[in-house]
TrEMBL record:
This is V-set and transmembrane domain-containing protein 5. The chain crosses the membrane at residues 146-170. Gene3D superfamilies: Immunoglobulins (2.60.40.10). One of its GO terms (biological process) is positive regulation of excitatory synapse assembly. Can homooligomerize through cis interactions within the same cell membrane. Keywords: Cell membrane, Cell projection, Developmental protein, Glycoprotein, Membrane, Signal, Transmembrane, Transmembrane helix. It is a single-pass type I membrane protein. The keyword Membrane applies.
């Protein structure tokens, strides 16, 4: 292999220096950016359940984390905090939200009204930010509906039993009435026959 000439060495050295500078700049920029990961972007829940809106982030320094709730009624801020500091929770969600240093929040005893889009924004102190969305669907508890159906069916069964009992009693009464009537008819017929015999 031939040794490089002086001009080629300088050019090669400049290229390596430029490459090293580019890699260093890219690493610095990457270390200052925010990355956000959402393990579950859609959550299905039932009424009265406690729900974890889970996220994970990485960034340079201590970020500011903010959660907002979007529904048919508009956008509403839920909570804002810095990990390690006290969270600033909105009045609408007081005593209903718990925060975690990894950016996640927990909603306690959710209702159907809590269905909607939850947007988390992670902003680092240098100004770069990243956001993500979790969709929450909250439905009525199924066993409550089944309980109502079971009670309704039990009521129908009770009414049917009462009606069947009344029909049985009415049938017995009608049968006794017909027996008495037949017996009376037989007695009347026997009396008529006796009278006819006497007259003859």
């Amino acid at each position: 292999m031939r040794p490089l000439r002086t001009g080629q060495r300088k050019h090669h050295g400049v290229s390596l220096g430029f490459l090293a500078l580019s890699l260093t700049t890219a690493c610095c920029l990457q270390s200052q950016g925010v990355s956000l990961y959402i393990p579950q972007s859609t959550i299905n829940a039932t009424v009265k359940e406690d729900i974890l809106l889970s996220v994970e982030y990485s960034c340079h320094g201590v970020p500011t984390i903010e959660w907002k709730y979007t529904s048919n009624w508009g956008v509403q801020k839920i909570v804002e905090w810095k990990p390690g500091a006290q969270a600033n929770i909105s009045q609408s969600h007081k005593d209903r939200v718990g925060t975690f240093d990894n950016g996640s929040i927990q909603l306690f005893s959710v209702g159907v009204r809590d269905s909607g889009y939850y947007v988390v924004t992670v902003t680092e102190h240098l100004g770069s930010s990243q956001f993500g969305t979790i969709v929450l669907h909250v439905s009525e508890i199924l066993y409550e509906d089944l309980h109502f159906v079971a009670v309704f069916l039990a009521l129908l069964a009770a009414v049917a039993a009462v009606l069947i009992s009344l029909m049985w009693v009415c049938n017995k009464c009608a049968y006794k009435f017909q027996r008495k009537r037949r017996h009376k008819l037989k007695e009347n017929t026997a009396e008529e026959i006796e009278l006819q015999d006497v007259e003859c």
